[in-house]
Amino acid sequence: MVDMDKIVSLCKRRGFIFQSSEIYGGLGSAWDYGPLGVEFKNNVKRLWWRDNVHLRDDMVGLDAAITMHPRVWEASGHLASFSDPFTGCADCGRHYRADQMIDAIWNSRWFRAFNKMLDGPAAKKDIQKALENWVQGEGKKLAPNFPQGSLGENIRLPLEGANDPRFLELVRMLAHSSNSNVMGFLCPNCGSGKLSNPKPAGLMLETFLGPVQETATKTYLRPETAQGIFVNFDNVLQASRKKLPFGIAQVGKAFRNEITPGNFTFRTREFEQMEIEYFVNPFDTIDGRPADEVWHDRWVAERFGWYQKYGIRQENIRQRAHEKDELAHYAKSCVDIEYLFPMGWSELEGIANRTDYDLKQHSQYSGKPLEYFDEESKQKIVPYVIEPSAGADRSALAFLVDAYNEEEVRGEKRVVLRFHAELAPIKIAVLPLLKKNAQIVQTAKKLTADLRKRWLTVYDDTASIGRLYRRQDEVGTPFCVTVDVQTVGDDKSAADEKVTIRDRNTMEQVRVSMSSLESMMDKLMAGKWAEVAQEHGIKTD
Questions:
Q1: The pairing of beta strand 412-417 with beta strand 379-381
Q2: 426-535 has which fold?
Q3: 289 φ/ψ angles, rounded to the nearest 5 degrees
Q4: Which of 243, 246, 206 shows the shortest CA–CA distance to 229?
Q5: 101/67 Cα distance (integer angstroms)
Q6: Each residue's pLDDT tens digit, 432-479
Q7: Span 33-82+204-400 CATH architecture
Q8: For residue 193, what pLDDT is reported?
């Protein structure tokens, strides 16, 4: 798995993602998508919208306002309970989500060094002596308050993960605690301070609508897009005349005052969601099962397959069903799709069966019934809701990480982003072999203009052809088209009016006529390079 620092470096160098307000020192957990990043993220959202809305008869779209009536958040329960427990270190001032402290300690510098010591030859020979030496040496710098004393009989060799019972025992021992409360744990950041007793922290971001704050209406930047769909349920139902089951999709910004944002764009205070609320008749059955349960399973399978369709490798993605004690009080079931990010397995998307909680809550608080009239039973019902909720930023990060690859080619490192063609920010790069040959340049620029009518195409003549290929590899461009002397002809030979197409993944090349280039690109964008290569006499595995 690639290191996150390499991803961050590539993103800045190649114009995918920049630190927001960087010239002023940056703003924590805020990121700007650059020229390639905005194209890439838009492709993620476009494919999600196409596959979930345009290609289905049972889906419609919505774009609700970011600021909503404050009562919306009373009804949804966000004002009363949308908070996370947080704890802080008095020494360095860092704050953490209390329910994520075990993972934070596991990933801290001081604990990684400690665990490495446990696996060393000195610890295998005499663990207590090795511990004393570590505490007085490296440990004194990384974790000044690491306690002296015995490790206990079960703490041996390297620990296997944050869920290793021996690790939990060690953390509690270091805090002189026998329970799971994080109070007294060593700070993951400084290794010196002891963490405070957890307290709740509200995640809602307040704002005021009106020119004078004293008389303005206090409201909130929405923490999720879902509520905009629920409050518009009747409007959409009346306008679209959809029959159950049907869904409403929305892509838009959401805001949460996260305690510990981080891991690049994975957890931020401003982010973009791609959400569906799929409404089902709770009294229907499918093959003897409740319809809501069947549709929940279908959406889990649909969404799980979507990521793999666009390039996520099977070994890097999994499903995890929530245990009963993890479920929200209104949820019947929930399955997370998790991805193996550089920092470990983390949630990529959640698919929840929210039952009829949301529509009933908004009906109660607004006094407006949010119901569906079933023609067959002649009854009004409140539908159940299946909610596939994904993040555009997290999805983009997962696709980016999964596409990253380093390999050695002729003694040099080649960095390539193996994006699915539909995700790649640039589809085609047109490259002149000789930038001082006016006819080659003119032909290349005309080709660029023609191809741009179908695909995002760039012209580049700022380096040698080898460097240009490497540059396009690093930003994930699937195909390069090279115009050379043979294409335009010279004093010695007539023009053959052919160009060379180079495939990013295999680095193989085929020569095709310019007149057939567009139809050839149609085949290549559909993933048929092997077929095209074989037609041109190139043997593929």
A1: unpaired
A2: Rossmann fold (3.40.50)
A3: -110, 150
A4: 246
A5: 33
A6: 999 889 999 999 999 999 999 999 999 999 999 999 999 999 999 999
A7: 2-Layer Sandwich (3.30)
A8: 74
